[in-house]
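Re: beginner question about structure tokens

> Can someone show what the tokenized structure looks like for a real chain? I only ever see the sequence side.

Sure, here's an example I had lying around. Input first:
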Amino acid sequence: MTIRTILPPRGRDYRLDLLRGFANWAIYLDHIPNNAVNWLTQRNYGFSDAADLFVFISGYTASFVYARMMLERGFVIGATRLLKRAWQIYVAHLVLLVMYIAEIGYLARRYSNPNLQNEFNVAGFMADPAETLYQGLVLAFKPVNMDVLPLYILLMAAFPPILWTMVRLPNLTLAVSFLLYLAARHFDWNLAAFPTGYWYFNPFCWQFLFIFGGWFALGGSVEARPFIRSRALLWLGSAYLLFSLIITMAGRFPEIAGLIPTQLYDAFNPNDKTNLAPYRLIHFVVLAFFINRWLARDWEGLEWPLFRPLIKCGQQSLEVFCTGVFLAVGAHVVLVEVSDAIGMQIAVSFVGITLMTAVAYYRSWSKKADKPKP
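And the corresponding structure tokens:
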């Protein structure tokens, strides 16, 4: 079958590292409730948030890295490398799960606050460790804030045949993915979670954002370039982002909500994140098109020292993400049990991001140190 994809240029695309680093920082801040610093993240100014960015870039990067490998070295090599990466993420998820439960158990005893176990959805583990651990192994048990990695694992594990098809029939692959997205929303398809409910990130819906990222990497951005650079998108997209900003602000400030018709307000609030609401998807696509329009691969600003910590965190994304999830629990408990003053909110946010960045720099140095000298 004819190869129809357009492979990206060789070499690292630092735009991806920059944006993924920002997503990791934003996810950490968003995981800390009642934290004024998370007003710096995108979730407060539109329908989509850092999770959308993380999933999109994950799909983009997976295609960017493994499509060339699959074409040059064969499907089996490319597929096994993808599955190896999925296994690495799975192992990281299990290690984080154990540390996460232990952290919450310790903090609950330390501050005599057993409600923490319910707040973070780990009380079931205390009651039935064996069954809960098994459900964690099969990705059905997910404490609060640990929903992204199971989604990532599942999408990566299922990606090899999809990537094989995408490099040959990219538009058809994207269309089938979109039809699955629509069907999942219409028929309420989702996976069961433990002990009750369903996956917070419905994989049948969120797979489209992952596939869209892959399509965008393998020539989609080139095919869509006339539209991306059109005046129509500039005006329509800007108007939609402004509308999204107003509706999102209305969800946070009753004074603004009172100025909006009730039916219009109710159509967008609460924001349907689980099933990736169409208005949320459109918001992110507009942002992706605008970033592609204005942020060039060779932009000299990517060399600025200001962005180096973000880029480094994006390059060591898995370790930084896991560190952020772990630290967010401690930050939340500090604000609840010690002080929730604005100074403390700034402090826990700064300390957490500093530690995440330190982990990124250490992992970068460690990987270089592990390589044998010539």
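Each token stands for a local structural state, so reading them left to right follows the chain. The chain has a mean pLDDT of 94.
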